[in-house]
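Structure, all two chains, one model.
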Amino acid sequence: MIKKGFTLIEVLLGIFIITILIPAFIDVDKVNIFMAKESENSYKMFLIASSICELYKNSSYYYEELSCQIYLNSSNELDQSIEMSLDKLRDDTNKRYKASLNFKLQDTGLYKLKIEVEDLLQGEKISLSCYK
Amino acid sequence: MIKKGYTLIEVMVSLFIFFIIISLTLEFISYSMGLNMDLKGRSSDLINATIAIDFIQDKIRTGNIEPINNYNKDRLEILKTFDGSILYLKNGILRYSTDSQQITPNIDYVFVEKISNNLFKISVTTSMGKNYICYVGGGL
């Protein structure tokens, strides 16, 4: 007998392979969405760090040696001065971002602030330094 | 007997399998297109916000600016730079000086607040409803 066409096993195998490939493609899209969300998140973290830098550069306070942490959900929660922000955002740890601030007297008249912002949900970190 | 062609049952079974595969494929394509549209929207939204914030930061750092934050006719005037040019929002597009100088589209609201003599707070809301806030110090 000359066999033409596919057997049931071959057809089922083909369908099985297709059903495995479709979720693989969907996963690629999900990874892209995740990366887009992550870049938005990184930008928000950068805005928090740069805002803290700007607040410190525009304050009349000079910290020679100080390390502290503040907790916040967005840069909107920062107060209008660095002193008030440090005071207000120190205690409530139930926030998305943790900013670790490290003030240091770098040289005569040169003060350094190193900020490390950590996303407590995703574990992502960025750091930024500024001088005044 | 030499068998030619397919039986009705074979044709119906193959059609059934074919339609299942087609419907799965169409569903996957529409799902994938939806995800891609979402991805495209998210990316361009973030880029537009970044451009708007960068532009305003640049204006604040490179010259004396005066916040306005007032609606004037059909536009929201945001700030006035030292040379008298106005940064404004019209039809969801951030514009500078004239209508043709378009900075970035899909911006819903911008607010620039003077916190102290040399410190400003910028708030940008995009058309997707995302709000980005940052502080920036003046250069002069």
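Residues 67-131 of chain A form a domain with the Nuclear Transport Factor 2; Chain: A, fold (CATH 3.10.450).
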